[in-house]
Structure formats: structure tokens, C-alpha cells
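Now for our specimen.

. . .
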Amino acid sequence: MFEMDKEQFGKFVLELRKEKSLTQKELADKLYVSDKTVSKWECGKGMPDISMLVPLGEILGVSVTELLECKRHAPDELLSTAQVENVVQKALHVSGHEQKQRYLRKKNRILWYIGALVICGLEIGVAYMLKWEMFSFWTCGLTFVILAAVFGAWFTFGAKEKLPAYYDEYKISGFIDGGIHMNLPGVHFNNRNWPHIIKAGWLWSVLMLMLCPIYFFLFEFLIPGNIWVIFVVSMVAFFCGLFVPFYVVGTRYK
């Protein structure tokens, strides 16, 4: 079985980057990824997506074959059949590794999202059985739970892994996908910050589902009957909890 030696690949990328007098940040900017991602490659803790091999090779001045072989070839060197097969198998391995990582991320998110829905339902059920006061929850809290569940479903199942290439070329602050509309003035969506934005939105949804019932039950005890105060404070907390992380990661990984 053909497999990529991650440590060897990382050393080769590190060597080529230094030859080009590039910092990890400069290389990352050219590839629209974070400098931490480049650091993982060079430390042998990760591999780039197969779609990045061509631009990575162009920036470092080598071919994709040389990247996969982790060594330079003479300009007129011809590869043998065995070498070609080796390169193809390594490319397939990189692609398979990428798909496996995406599958594991998706699986973990689905399990956590379903778990959050179950916990939310149990919290509501326990409160109902114990006859705790739930006026504020039924009047406005349930709306926030439904919103968190809807957004969470999109972040878990529907959100795209990557944005079209023109998001990396132009400064675009809006995103539309069916009924989902995102517009963050001052933040430009691209393939460096998009995965972090999706992760932040998903994490917010999961936490909201698990904490929202408890939040409203506590409010009912602390400020009983003040439904408008609860509603306004909850609305501010709800949307700040969603959009503030978007701005933080959107600007940090721009």
C-alpha cells in the first residue's frame, strides 16, 4: 500500500519555503489558509487538501509529482511506470485522507447536534414533569430554541465545506444559500475564514440548544413575570452570541 510520509513531506515543504524566503504566514496567505495549517504540514501533523497541491507546487516552484515524491527531479528526467504508479497512488492516498477527515468532522458534528437536541428535550421534559414555572420559556424561549435548532441543522448538514473561488479573489461580505442569508459588513468571506465561521455557528447552535431552557428557567426565578425584560435581554444575548464570534474569527483569519 502506498502512503505519504507526512514528516518527509513536511520537511520538503519547509525546505522549499525557506528557499523562496517565505514565512509561514506569507505562504498561508497565498494559499488562503491559516499559518497554523502550514505549520501542521511542516511538522508532519497534517496534509494539504489534494486541491491545494497544484497552487502549492506553483508557489514553491516544483511540480505536483515532486511534491508527492518529496524530492526534485531533473528537468529532462522521465518517470518509469513504477514511479508514475507510485505518484498516482500517493495522490489517491491524499484524496482519501482528505475525505476521511471530512467524514469524521461531519460525523462528530452530527452526533453532537443530535445529543444537544436530546439534552434540550430532556431539560424541557424534566421541568414540565416537576411543574417548574415555564411562562417565559413558552412565551419566548421556545422561539430561540427553534431558531437554534434550525441554524444548527444548516451548520451541521447543509453548510458548504468550501466557497467558490471568486470569494478568494474579491471582497465579498454576503453569502446566500437557499433560505440562509449571511451579511457581515466589514468581514470578507473567503476560504481561510469560512471553515472557522461555520465551526463557530455550529458550536453556538449546540450550546444554545443545551443552555437555552436552563437560561429561561433561571430567569423565571430571578425576574418572575417581567417577560419583556427577559425577551429583550435574551434577544441581545442570542444575536451577540451568534454574530460576535463570526466577526472575531472572520477578521482573525482574513
